[in-house]
Design a protein that fits this description.
Helices cover 6% and strands 46% of the residues. The chain is mainly beta.
């Protein structure tokens, strides 16, 4: 009997069969443009006339692979899908001298323009020219850069987290992460909209914007591609940044390294805002790496393998500091809380392992196969924040992930290329109780301390799998390179929420009354979670595209195309009591046209290039909002029940319930839902860039970028109606009574509905000075002047909490128009890697001044935006943390200016041509500057009318207790062969 296939399996099978068929025809030496590059140009004679039918051989010097192409009637040649590396281009044609062009370096996604001018003569004569492609590339259209291996391996990176390199791109703002978490990235004025990729495959977690699926290490990475604007129809799923980390591959030579880095507590400066005059949090790091690559069969089959282990203390991070005072600790110990529960900073640590193996094989003349396997695991004991938490609230964070990627590259002819990619990846992250975890109920003494059982123990957050297929076909004909393709990404999610019971007390004295039995109901509230904490759901994201790269003349090129994205979101709960939650809309009109133009205003040794592009860019829907709509649909599958001491059935401290008491009636619930007309977020980008080559290796670029966002998801409380009064600025005040006159649907209290109604506007001027490696150094300096506004406080972003990003007035969204969280007026970034060489006559001076290397990252910006809200629910809509005081506009808070310099210094000891030792030191925040950040809302007291009580803090000072790291220093040794 034939079993009916699901649509997912059917499409997957078709893509796989097509890829295997196409891979059995002809040879290709490459992969996709997300993983490789292209060399193109024009063959001409001394007069500039085109030379057709020239035979061109393109050879990768490191791996020995070759590609043969022929120039067309216009003299144009193209070699797409080339592996990265250093190339030699040789051209031969009758009646012209043989030309050999050497020293061409191809980086990720690059289209290197290599024009070939031939001299008349005998083909047996050879002319050799050593030079790279022009620094102002007339084939590049997008706004972005590629960090080469020299930068990736030699810039300071104490965190060992290459995702922090994303902040080096112009038009990107944010802040780095001190360990393997995600940095806070904003691009094009959109907060946290980042499409993370690993070798061109998706490495983005689907629940919230800004999360990577698998952490990566520098051991995984040879190059980093950063693109913010103007990317072609082949790429999508974000209106912000594409960050593609490219893994290393082996070559014909055996090369590798082994390193050890370490840091000890005396190596760092006292954390800012750390009040203890004596003990410093432990801050030790031990880090081992090993990597090796080489040939299995020369010119045909290569391998690369790597391993990294890191153990480090994280108690030094500012958010780990504990705020419980010494006198409060004494009182709590007297009530029975063990003294061991109190620490100055939560002793969080991290033990992580990274593994990578990659192989690249020319299987036969028809097929080239690349296989890659990455694995990561992390055990992070006591992984909680500080503040009012005691050590009893600690849990262990266990995180494991892996990724298997395969790629088959083939050709149908010398003009038609096919590339097929497959990936299966999984992330499993859990919180588990540990030896320090408390027992019994959770206890909160408001504003003082949290102890007892952790509320998020034994949770799963998340277990996510992704199965990805992608097939792309390229056809080069004459002046055109047409490319089209499609793919899918099947995502499976599983979550387990925390099951807990919590007593909240207003003071230590009231807790003592309950503890000693004098008044076992002296608590203010009791909350317990009931029901099934587990939920599973699946989604499938499809993409299709077609594009043409049209070289109109040797100076002018167009890239135009159309992309279509279909996001098949999780199935709704058809039995949900509220109609919006019974069926989730699938947006089916996500058509995204793209157009890019590049024109060489001037050729020669100092070319001038102008680029412009416009297009529509869609964003994937955050799956977390569907999770909320499923969990909080009004069907009480998993819920929190709140009691006050007089509620019938309320427990006597310290007893918990385990199940709802007999006769207990659920209060009117609040639910989450998604509007039935919900559409995908998209942005309309336009940009223009002018690049001028100042020397053979130095260029200056000035540009303008505009982006308009549409359909940004916004949570709005749609259930409150008929306000009873207004605040002084016109915002309505609602009734707490639940009936048909105060609620749209009186079955519910609040209905938080996600609506695709937000809009945004972003304008930026960018200035960039770039020097590629020559004379022993390279650098990139950029400055961005920008402004970002929107009317869309977003609740699905990283590090936000439910409720603190709901619009302040559900009846008038215009009141929430203001600076975006991504608004940062001035941003300066500089990166530099240099290894100067001096030719002194003195051998001693040569020994001292040579073999030194410096890596520097310097940043400065005008500060971060944050919202200022009232501690009270001013409009009585039941949503706390969203109401601004009267007279305060949205995101009007601004931190002081931020400055930072990171440094890496290396000294090399050369044993011979093959073996050398690097001794290095790395600094974070070299000058120990206190840079304040304030991402979460700042709550301030107000009176009942919404007026401030007192005055706002002076945000220009550096007294806000949220700082970036103080100076960190570590030492290392690296053996290179």
């Amino acid at each position: 009997m034939i079993q009916k296939l699901s649509s997912f399996r059917l499409v997957s099978l078709c893509l796989l069969v097509f890829a295997l068929f196409s891979g059995s025809v002809y040879q290709v030496n490459a992969q996709s443009q997300a993983l490789n590059g292209q060399i193109e140009g024009v063959v001409t004679d001394a007069t500039g006339a085109a030379i057709p039918n020239a035979s061109i051989t393109i050879k990768n010097i490191e791996t020995g692979s070759e590609r043969q192409v022929t120039s067309d009637e216009s003299g144009v040649y193209r070699a797409p899908l080339l592996p990265l590396g250093t190339y030699q281009v040789t051209v031969e044609v009758t009646n012209f001298k043989r030309l050999v062009r050497e020293g061409i370096t191809l980086t990720t996604g690059q289209t290197a323009t290599v024009n070939l001018g031939l001299e008349a003569g005998d083909v047996s004569a050879t002319v050799t020219v050593t030079s790279d492609a022009p620094v102002a590339d007339a084939a590049k259209i997008d706004v972005g850069r590629v960090m080469n291996t020299r930068e990736v391996q030699n810039l300071p990176l104490v965190s060992r987290n290459p995702y922090n390199y994303s902040l080096l791109q112009a038009n990107v703002t944010g802040r780095p992460n001190a360990e393997f978490g995600v940095p806070r990235i904003n691009a094009n004025g959109y907060a946290r909209r980042t499409n993370y990729q690993l070798d061109g495959n998706s490495n983005t977690q689907a629940d919230r914007p800004g999360i990577r699926l698998m952490p990566i290490s520098e051991t995984f990475v040879s190059e980093v591609q950063l693109v913010t604007n103007g990317f072609s129809a082949e790429f999508g799923n974000t209106p912000g940044l594409i960050m593609n980390a490219v893994t290393p591959s082996g070559t014909n030579g055996i090369h590798g390294s082994a390193s050890y880095r370490f840091r000890r507590t005396p190596f760092y400066a006292r954390p800012f805002q750390y009040n203890s005059p004596t003990d410093l949090p432990t801050n030790n790091v031990d880090n081992l790496t090993f990597a090796v690559g080489g040939p299995i069969i020369k010119d045909r089959w290569h391998y690369y393998g790597g391993y990294e282990y890191i153990k480090r203390d994280l108690a030094v991070e500012p958010n780990r500091l504990v705020s419980i005072t010494a006198s409060q600790q004494v009182q709590l110990i007297a009530t029975g809380v063990p003294s061991s529960a109190f620490v100055a900073a939560i002793p969080v640590s991290q033990k992580a392992n990274f593994y990578i193996f990659r192989t690249d094989a020319q299987l036969n003349e028809a097929n080239r196969l690349t296989g890659r396997f990455n694995y990561f695991d992390n055990n992070s004991p006591n992984n909680i924040g500080g503040g009012a938490n005691t050590l009893q609230r600690s849990i262990d964070f266990i995180d494991k992930s892996y990724s298997l990627g395969l790629q088959l590259a083939s050709t149908f002819s010398t003009q038609i290329f096919n590339e097929f990619r497959f990936q299966y990846a999984k992330r499993d992250s859990r919180n588990l109780a540990n030896a320090n975890s408390g027992t019994g109920p959770s206890i909160v003494i408001t504003g003082i301390a949290n102890f007892g059982s952790p509320e998020n123990a034994n949770t799963l957050l998340p277990l996510e799998t992704t199965t990805q297929f992608q097939d792309n076909l390229t056809w080069t004909r004459g002046d055109h390179a047409v490319k089209f393709g499609g793919g899918l990404n099947r995502i499976g999610d599983e979550r387990v929420s925390g099951v807990f019971a919590r007593f909240t007390f207003s003071s230590i004295a009231n807790y003592l009354l309950a503890r000693n039995g004098t008044n076992p109901r002296s608590y203010t509230t009791y909350i317990e979670a009931f029901g099934d904490p587990e939920i599973k759901y699946k989604s499938t994201f499809y993409n299709f595209f077609a594009q043409d790269d049209w070289k109109v003349t040797r100076k002018l090129k167009f890239n135009y195309g159309l992309r279509y994205d279909l996001y098949d979101v999780p199935d709704a709960d058809a039995s949900a009591p509220f109609s919006f939650s019974q069926d989730f809309k699938i947006d089916k009109n996500n058509f995204a046209p793209r157009l890019g133009i590049v024109y060489g205003l001037r050729e020669g040794s100092r070319p001038t290039v102008i680029r412009a592009s416009a297009g529509v860019y869609y964003d994937t829907p955050p799956l977390d909002m569907y999770l909320r709509a499923l969990q909080n649909s009004g069907n009480p599958r998993f819920f929190n029940f709140s009691f006050n001491p007089t509620t019938p059935g309320a427990p006597v401290f310290p007893n918990t319930l385990g199940s709802l008491p007999a006769g207990a009636v659920l209060p009117v619930q609040s639910i989450d839902t998604i509007a039935p007309d919900f559409d995908s977020l998209y942005a309309i980008h336009t940009n223009v860039q002018l690049e001028q080559a100042l020397t053979d290796n130095l260029s200056f670029t000035v540009g303008y970028i505009h982006s308009g966002g549409r359909h940004i998801p916004v949570y709005r409380n749609i259930n409150r109606i008929n306000p009873t009064a207004t605040l002084a600025d016109g915002r309505p005040i609602f009734s707490n009574t639940i009936n048909a006159t105060t609620r749209l649907d009186p079955r519910f209290n609040n209905i938080l509905s996600v609506e695709s109604v937000g809009t945004s506007k972003y304008d930026a001027a960018t200035f960039q000075l770039s020097k590629r490696f020559s004379q022993g150094y390279q650098f990139s300096v950029n400055y961005t002047l920008s402004k970002a506004t929107d009317d869309a406080p977003e609740q699905n972003l990283v590090a936000t909490q439910v409720g603190n990003s709901v619009i302040s007035d559900p009846t008038n969204r215009a009141l929430d128009r203001g600076p975006s969280l991504a608004d940062q007026r001035h941003t300066f970034v500089m990166s530099f890697v240099g290894r100067p060489q001096f030719n002194f006559e003195s051998k001693a001076l040569r020994y001292i001044f040579n073999n030194n290397q410096f890596g520097i990252i310097a940043t400065a910006n005008s500060g971060e935006r944050f919202n200022i809200v009232s501690t009270a629910d001013l409009n009585f809509d039941g949503v706390s943390g969203s109401d601004r005081p009267v007279g305060i506009t949205r995101n009007s808070g601004k931190t002081p200016k931020q400055f930072n310099v990171d440094l890496r210094y290396s000294r090399f000891v050369n044993f011979n041509e093959r073996f050398k030792l690097e001794v290095f030191g790395e600094f974070v925040n070299l000058f120990n500057i206190n840079s304040i950040f304030q991402f979460n809302n700042l709550a301030v007291p107000t009176d009942a009318a919404g007026n401030l009580i007192g005055t706002l803090p002076d945000f220009r000072t550096r007294s806000i207790p949220t700082s970036l790291d103080s100076r960190q220093f570590q030492l290392g040794f690296k053996f290179i062969f």
